[in-house]
Amino acid sequence: MRSSRFGIRFVALLALTACSGTSTGAASTAGETFDPNSVTGTVVLTGWQGTRDEATALNATLDAFRARYPKIKVDYQPIATDYPNAMAAKFKARKPPDLFYVDSSVAPDWISQGLLYPLDDWIRSRGFDTGQFYPGYINAFKGPDSKTYGFPKDGSALGMAYNPDMLRAAGIGTPPTNGMSLSPTPGS
């Protein structure tokens, strides 16, 4: 298994690059000067790309990261299908990537299984502002211990619309409130 410390540093550096809007010069964190050339190595990043725009945004972030940290090679290995099961196989083989996407739907399970590393010490030591994330998005990556195990890369809001007249005509007095209430029988 790869060193989780390097992966944690990478996620932190990538987050700073993505959020800082700058791509050159030394980063100043918590009043300290950091030399980007002091970190070297190769890091494996695994994720998925849903749209061409997402690919463009990721490539721009990685390009900015590479410009800022020229001695770190990023080996991006996207998984095209069934990401959770592909990652489960990597975890089981004890060969997870150094950095990987975590969907908010699987984050609680991966946190409870001990597959994710808490980032709170890094957040504190670097003075990283997690307030830049919408609370609902960052809270999806907090464990029952209130520690932060990941940062959101994006988010989406799902909504449900219904026609109350049609529901009444169908004999449904109370509108559905979640996906499960849309199905008349479980699993159908």
Task: Please describe the topology of this protein.
Layout: H1 4-20, E1 27-29, E2 32-34, E3 41-46, H2 52-68, E4 72-76, H3 83-92, E5 99-100, H4 107-112, H5 120-126, H6 135-139, H7 164-169
Parallel strand pairs: 3-4, 3-5
Antiparallel strand pairs: 1-2
Helix pairs in contact: 1-2
Summarize this structure as a short list of keywords or feature phrases.
alpha/beta, 3-stranded parallel sheet, 7 helices, disordered N terminus
Helix count?
A: 7
Radius of gyration: 20 Å
Stretches where pLDDT is under 50 for at least 5 consecutive residues are: 1-10, 16-30
Q: What form results from the Cα inertia axes? A: elongated
Give a quick account of the main beta sheet: strands, pairing sense, barrel closure: 3 strands, parallel
- Order of strands, widest sheet: 4-3-5
Name the beta content range: 5-15%
Spatial separation of the terminal alpha carbons: 41 Å
Mean pLDDT: 81
Structural class: alpha/beta
How would you spell out the order of helices and strands? Answer: HEEEHEHEHHHH
What share of the residues lie within helices?
25-40%
Total DSSP E strands: 5
